Amino acid sequence: MTNGVGDLALFGGPPAFDRTRVVGRPRIGDRARFLDRLDKVLDSGWFTHNGPLVQEFERKVAETAGVGHCVLVTSATTALELMLDAAGVTGEVIMPSMTFIATAHSARVRGLQPVFCDIDPVTGCIDPDEVERLITPRTTAIAGVHLWGQPCAVDRLQKIADANGLFLYFDAAQALGSTFEDTPVGSFGSAEVFSFHATKVVNSFEGGAVVTNDGELAEKIRLRHKFGMNASGVVCREGTNAKMTEACAAMGLTSLEALEDSIRANIDRHADYRAALAGTPGIEVVEFNPAHHNNHQYLIIKVDHAENGLRRDTLLDLLRAENVFAQRYFSPCCHQLEPYRTENPVVLPRTEALAEQVIALPTGHAITTEDVTTISELITRAAVNGTELTRRREAVGVS
Ligand SMILES: Cc1ncc(COP(=O)(O)O)c(C=O)c1O
User: In the record, which residues are listed under signal peptide (predicted)?
Assistant: First the structure.
């Protein structure tokens, strides 16, 4: 299987898979339970406005995260925006660039200036030493991102925030079910935000949550997510409409019930990939620090062009031609995208080096061990023939 590349789908051969294998195939959980919940919603006519399923999902997310309060909203992006508004954050927010663009945009649309910070090259998460270096009189907040489900250095970041009087929050969009040591992600900083987007380890079609132990902050967010109305329906201030629907909560609850099983499947596929790709030149399966638990929703490999001559984007194209829809999580990263790259150009060497190398592969319940074998064989073929592939691509003007 490792000889030659001419019969690959990229060059006109038949694809390895007849059905697409994707990153983050939605996990429904028990379909019958979901449909039963949905039926009850339809019968009750209570579709939205803090219905019983939203209330139950809020309780269960708070329990999973080990916090006192959860406010469900329509997406993690909205959750970040409402949380920043409710906390009254102004000025500059120090954050990593190695994240989804929503981390930055949610601050910018609130009138804040994201200040991009370099990363710990091992984890890819924000580097606390760099955070300290970037603090100015305009800094008011630090945003950590639990990249690929790994907790960032929550303890060191809290010390820096306390020493400098800064608001600390975490974009935990990818990290439900992960822990820092034995403490669940969700309880760190002043607030954390989860995403229940369809690709996440728990999904509610679309959805997000702010979790916090600060009851006052939770109430401020709750006001803002429903037109500024309090529990009695009196409008006390301006606000938006970011309420989660009962149909979304039905999916969220059902998907949450499958969380443990989803994580188990993710861990199993991670072991399959590790075994199948061991010894493949210039390909590293990213391992996570065993001091913490990871939800393993993200199976990340690094492609070392210097070692195998293979370009990361060539491998992506090659896999997609075979119906393996791998992703660049995250490349380009935030400071390389508009409006940030024009408004405030910065160089982040460790972020840029990592972003150039990473690929997220399909994993978990959506694929089988046999699928992993096939995908890994394709990757191995690409790595062994890296220089040849680069030459062929360059010959047709693709770099
Ligand atoms: C790190 C990170 N932050 C924020 C988001 C945005 O989440 P949502 O799509 O729920 O707004 C995502 C989703 O992909 C993410 O991965």
Answer: none
